[in-house]
Amino acid sequence: AQSVSQHNHHVILSEAASLELGCNYSYGGTVNLFWYVQYPGQHLQLLLKYFSGDPLVKGIKGFEAEFIKSKFSFNLRKPSVQWSDTAEYFCAVISPNNNDMRFGAGTRLTVKP
Amino acid sequence: KAGVTQTPRYLIKTRGQQVTLSCSPISGHRSVSWYQQTPGQGLQFLFEYFSETQRNKGNFPGRFSGRQFSNSRSEMNVSTLELGDSALYLCASSLGPTGSYEQYFGPGTRLTVT
Question: Is B66 exposed, middle or buried (0-12, 13-18, 19+ CB in 10 A)?
């Protein structure tokens, strides 16, 4: 079964700093990839997803992620973070073959105003 | 369009009891998945139902079970509750099988076992 690693547990940035959150997965077959965000007191929301096509995907609120198949990675990026981006971010992977959805442990992002 | 709804939002139970949680998916969605979220283990997949059939099950004991009704609403049952079952239980719905469609999450049911 696949697994997902998010290497950063807690990231603290100042407003306007650039963000990159790492996500690596272990699975040799076809996968669909997701980034979800959980704002304080709110439920999980989809930021962006990759199923196929252009490996650089753009999501909501200025986020983007790049799928690098050779590195089994799907890192999340944002050029300039805002205080409102303070939240927990989860990377998730699912194989259409086994429908086993796996989430990373999450990265807590704190943006200082 | 209304989002995924879960009831109840909060629940306190005693060890040994059983509990049933309910999830109403977004209208038109036929797939419902359940997850357990805890500070120590993070988000873990419990099971997925599609068209009233369980398609996949995570690595949880048989005390955890579920079902889906013809209107796509789903229930999850946990029998013989243990302290370690205290968690946020999330339901997510999607148009089709989880592997190929994005999921929309509900707010969760916070279960506390004392």
Answer: buried
Query: What token pair was written down for B60?
Result: 């949880």
B58-68 confidence digits (pLDDT tens): 889 999 999 99
Which one of A51, A96, A99 has the shortest CB-CB distance to B48? A99
Strand partners, B50: B31, B53
DSSP letters for A30-79: --EEEEEEE-TTS--EEEEEESSS-SEEE-GGG-EEEEEGGGTEEEEEES
> B60 at the A interface (CB within 8 A)?
no
B43–A106 C-beta distance less than 8 A: yes
Tens-digit pLDDT string for chain A (113 aa):
678 999 889 999 999 999 999 999 998 788 899 999 999 988 899 999 999 999 999 999 999 999 999 999 999 999 999 999 999 999 999 887 777 789 999 999 999 99
The DSSP output letter for B102 is: -
Query: Judged by CB atoms within 8 Å, which residues 68-87 of A form the interface with B?
Result: none
Which positions 2-31 of A are in contact with B (Cβ < 8 Å)?
none
**Residue A3 CB partners (closer than 8 Å, separation 6+):** A25, A26, A27, A102
Q: Measure in Å the smallest separation between the Cα of B101 and chain A Cα atoms.
A: 9
Interchain pair A100, B105: CB under 8 A: no
Smallest CA-to-CA distance from A25 within A56, A45, A1 is with: A1
